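Trying the structure run again after the queue cleared.
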Amino acid sequence: MKVNLLQFSPVWEDKDKNFEQVLHWINSNKPSPDSLLVLPETFATGFSLNREETLANEPYKTESFLKDLSSQFGIWILGGMINPATGNQLMGKNCVVLYGPSGKRMGCYEKIHLFNPAGEQNVHLPGNKVQIFEIHGMKVCPLICYDLRFPEVFRIGIKKGAEVFVVHACWPKKRINHWKILLQARAVENQAYVVGVNRVGMEPNAEYEGGSMVIDPQGNIVLELGNEAICKEAILEKQLVDQWRATFPVLSNHGVSIL
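Done. Tokens:
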């Protein structure tokens, strides 16, 4: 499976300008048809907690952009955004939406672990379900930023058959060392690919340094993007997941009782 990581600097609370940026990167890089494009958490607004901006014209505005983009270029897209919470239009849901190459909406994952240190719980409601999507025969589990610090959600993904974890993030520069360590740890302990897509640039309350990467099931870094705005492609091989899990079957020992 071919996966394209788009690491860029979203313009603060300006969806139209950020849509233009994403379109520019796609036109410049020409991702392979039927490949997967991964965008950061809240790519259209930055990590804003201003519901007047993030929820404006949603879910139609951002989802229409993702729908048109996927069908125009014939690619899969996983993009992070804020959607209105069902039954509570005053609150949002920090989520990742998946569109297929035909422009069909394939599903949505809602962030389970809200970033309470920044007050996210005051404007967003948490999700409660780990989602698995199949893309080119590989089972993909999207997660969002703060979720990375909670290994139990990854184990739930494994129980559901996950072979690839995709972590969408706005992970700040001051904790970027945790980002790399945790991504590698999640790959090693789950014997799965981990794709981490972060942003770069500045926001009113944070600076971002990117560090997007692809890590294989043994914890080796396959691709690392550095701290610039860039789009790069990596190839994920299901065979590598299957072979390593068969050679070193650590997952079969999960759940051993300890007194």
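The longest helix spans residues 15-29. Worth checking whether this holds up in the mutant runs.
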